[in-house]
Each structure stands twice: as structure tokens, then as C-alpha cells.
């Protein structure tokens, strides 16, 4: 047995937005290491199919924007598996386009799922973990929560909020025995980035890369992990550059157009419809 498997085996880990993409890759990796994994997703059929394929005991419909739905999910996990060791707040959406063209309903939906859903899940998990004096919440934000990109204004806002929220909650519970971590992905090859080209000169990462990062956070809890390291370092370094240099670098790498003029609407249509709540 590997060191990772030995450390993760038997841990009870709940993951939101786990019917596909990063969430499913994380569930698959952790299940393979012997963790007792529970998954939730708004897409009930997809999450049940995913759970069945992995042989998971808990795979339930979960609306992260509804506190009652989230509480029911956590209650089912703890009733059937036991006290949750780790909650991974992964559910999120990324509609793209210029802010002037963004319907108010889409703006609200991004903030409800990406920000409010994380706050709800963290709060409910903390209420369960505090009396036990242990537990770990991993909130999946994005490197968009540390930089800014045309075509992603509301998405960036939602992820900036997750960063600030998680950091504040971490300090608030510094002496409580609980851990709080931020997972900060760059471009990931999932439906979320369908129809976009990524950053010039840098490879997109795979969902399995983010899953491996989440495993590393479980093994060695720390406040923040950026994946990939190269893009994460670039984003972090921009904070120390004069604004004109940082924005010029972004422009040279194609960042001003990757989510506006360079989007392939045909390849992206199915994801955009689902993310905007329009179905397929």
C-alpha cells in the first residue's frame, strides 16, 4: 500500500459537483485510494450513474444553493458512512461572454452556485466538525480568483469571493482543530473550458491533476495550492508587477480574447446551455 493510500484509506469524504469533471476525477482517485467517498450533484441521473460505476454507497442529488438540500446530503453521508472527515466544495459553473450581454439571471446563478453554495457547504460542515474538533474543508476556487480576465467578470468575482471567504474562515478557526484549504486550478480540460483555446504557450491541466492536488491537500493540509505550478506562479507573480506590465503580459498571452472573440460557440453550446440552466 502506498503512503497516500494508507493515509486516505477509510476517510469519509464528500464531494459536490461530482457527476463529471474535476469532481468525478477526485471521487475516482480517492475511491481508488480506499477512501469512503460520497458524491452529490444537481444532475441526479448523472451523479447516480457516476456513483454506480464507482460502486459508491452515497450518490445523491444536491442543489448547493439550497441549504436544506445541502443539509440533507450531509446528513445522508453521516448516517450511512459516518462523520465527514473532508468536504470538497467543488460545484461551480463558468458561463462566458461580455458583461453587457450577461442576463441578470445568469449573473445570479453564477454567484449562487460558485459563491453562496461554497459558503453554505462550509458553514454546514463546520457546524458538524466543530464539536468533534476535527475536519477539513477544501474549497475549489480558481486562478481566476487571483487575476482578472475579460469575458469572465462575474466568474472572477465569484472566485475572488471564495478565496477571501476561505482565508477568513481558516483564520477564524485557527485554534479549533479544523483545516481549510483552497484548490486553485488553471485551465482544466473539462466541459467548463469547451470551445476555448487556453493560454498561449501553456498546456491545460487534466482533471486528474486537480484530483492529485486535492489528495495532496488531504495528506498535508495547507491554505492554498495552485495547479499547474507554472501558471500559478505566473499569476502570483503578477501581483508584484506594475499593472501595465501584468496586463500587457496577459494581452500577449491572448488573455483578452480567450473568453470573448476566440470562443467557438458551437463546441461550447451544450455546456453553456447547462451552465445557464437552459438544458441541452
Give your account of this protein's structure.
With 280 residues, the protein is of the alpha/beta class. It has one domain (3-275): NAD(P)-binding Rossmann-like Domain (Rossmann fold). The protein contains ten helices and seven strands. It has helices at residues 3-8, 21-32, 44-54, 67-80, 104-129, 153-172, 207-219, 229-238, 243-252, 265-275, and strands at 12-16, 36-41, 58-61, 86-89, 135-140, 178-185, 224-227. A seven-stranded parallel β-sheet has the order 3-2-1-4-5-6-7, with helices on both faces. Helix 2 (21-32) packs across helix 7 (207-219) and helix 5 packs parallel to helix 6 (153-172).
Summarize this entry quickly.
With 280 residues, the protein is of the alpha/beta class.
Can you lay out the helices and strands and say which pair or pack?
Elements: H1 3-8, E1 12-16, H2 21-32, E2 36-41, H3 44-54, E3 58-61, H4 67-80, E4 86-89, H5 104-129, E5 135-140, H6 153-172, E6 178-185, H7 207-219, E7 224-227, H8 229-238, H9 243-252, H10 265-275
